[in-house]
Amino acid sequence: MIELSGLRKVYPSPGGDVVALDGIDLTVERGTVHGIVGRSGAGKSTLIRCLTGLERPTAGTVTVDGVTISDLPENRLRTARRKTGMVFQHVNLLDSRTIADNVAYPLEVAGVRRAQRAARVAELLDLVDLGHRASAYPAQLSGGQKQRVGIARALATEPAVLLCDEPTSALDGETTRQILGLVRDLRDRLGITVVVITHEPSVVRETCDAVTLLEHGRVVQSGTLAQVVTQVGSPLSRALVPVPDVPPGRRRRLVEAVFATDAVSTATAFGAVAGLGDDVEVLSATVEPLGALRVGRLLVDTPQERTDEVVARLRAAGLDPLAAPAGDAGQEVA
User: Fold this and answer.
1) How many CA atoms lie within 13 A of 16 on its CB side?
2) What is the pLDDT of residue 82?
3) Nearest to 243 by CA among 284, 198, 301, 303
4) Who contacts 132 (Cβ-Cβ below 8 Å, separation ≥6)?
5) Residue 247, phi then psi, degrees to nearest 5
6) How far apart are CA 245 and CA 284, in angstroms?
7) Which domains are seen in the chain, by residue range?
8) Is 298 in contact with 234 (CB distance < 8 Å)?
9) Which residues does the UniProt record annotate as the domain ABC transporter (predicted)?
10) Within a 13 Å sphere around the CA of 311, how many CA atoms are in the beta-carbon half?
11) In whole angstroms, what is the distance from residue 233 CA to residue 252 CA?
12) Please, what sign has the CA dihedral across residues 63, 69, 71, 76?
């Protein structure tokens, strides 16, 4: 498990202090895949450097697998870091070493004996389906294969936590799906905790159990996928299950509604709208898979004077409605 409490990081600057992290409180549950999302400058890179102990926080604590690493002296911090594996965007393999030797490198640094290293490397390469490429060099591998080597190397010291920094941003769509599937499979088989830093909603949808949105060094929204996507009108809800396009034509007042199909069936959701009469209609709708969950979103056109009634009826049917036009909460649409 990872716990951040009051985490603050400030960088002194001649032009004034730069606050990179501003009081982060966050818990990542053991054995989950947790996504950290946010725009450039939101604090994602600083957060991951604090998680690995490469940055000391200005205030607050960082606890990883029961050890408060933010309080450790440097000699103990080096040992604690072995419990955290790191997967990089650009992999950073050593070109002059074979694949097996790249995976073995963290074990060499840790002082593991040669025979034990060889056995562990063979085990890891089999785990990522690259046992047959042990003697190859990085230049002979595809981008996806290189990332698999990076994952194997990150797992070499049997970490409790795997940190993935934009692990698929340099890969094509099919390879991305394969790598994300591998990450979840490894979590299931090894029981490790995974933190994925990403700017891609598709990565969160396909891989994560929970997600946190950072803005300007602060947590704006956080929770399980089911929790965040059913918060109608919220930034993560709209990013993960986008508001459907609204067809052209005259509109009066839009009500946006979201629902999880494990709680409300699609038939119930549409039936609730149909029961409101001919002057209320669904303008657009979508139902998308979100891991083991399916989430639906409706945009309903209603007369202004019936807005409150429509919202109340949809809520009674188990949906989470919000009277707002698509993409512009709280304003009227002519």
Assistant:
1) 1
2) 84
3) 284
4) none
5) -65, 155
6) 7
7) 2-227 (3.40.50.300), 235-323 (3.30.70.260)
8) no
9) 2-241
10) 15
11) 19
12) positive
Tens of pLDDT, residue by residue over 275-330, are: 888 899 888 888 888 877 788 888 899 998 999 999 999 999 999 888 864 444 33
Task: Tell me the three state secondary structure of residue 258.
Answer: strand
Do residues 73 and 19 touch, judged by C-beta distance below 8 A? no
Name the one residue in this structure whose structure tokens are 């990085």. Answer: 138
Q: Which helix (H) or strand (E) holds 27?
A: strand 18-28
Q: What is the number of other CB atoms lying within 10 angstroms of the CB of residue 333?
A: 14
Give per-residue pLDDT as tens, 78-105. Answer: 888 888 999 988 888 999 999 999 999 9
Q: What are phi and psi of 202, to 5 degrees?
A: -65, -35
Between CA 84 and CA 28 the distance in angstroms is: 14
Question: Which of 161, 210, 206 shows the shortest CA–CA distance to 187?
Answer: 161
Nearest alpha-carbon partner for 195 in 57, 55, 3, 330:
3
* Lookup result for tokens 């046992």: 131
Contact between residue 136 and residue 128 where contact means Cβ atoms under 8 Å apart: no
Q: How many helices (H) and strands (E) does the chain have?
A: 11, 14
Tokens at 104, concatenated = 């073995």
Which residues pair with residue 21 across a beta bridge? 9
Determine contact, residues 255/309, Cβ cutoff 8 Å: no
Alpha-helix runs per DSSP H in 67-172 = 74-80, 99-109, 114-127, 143-154
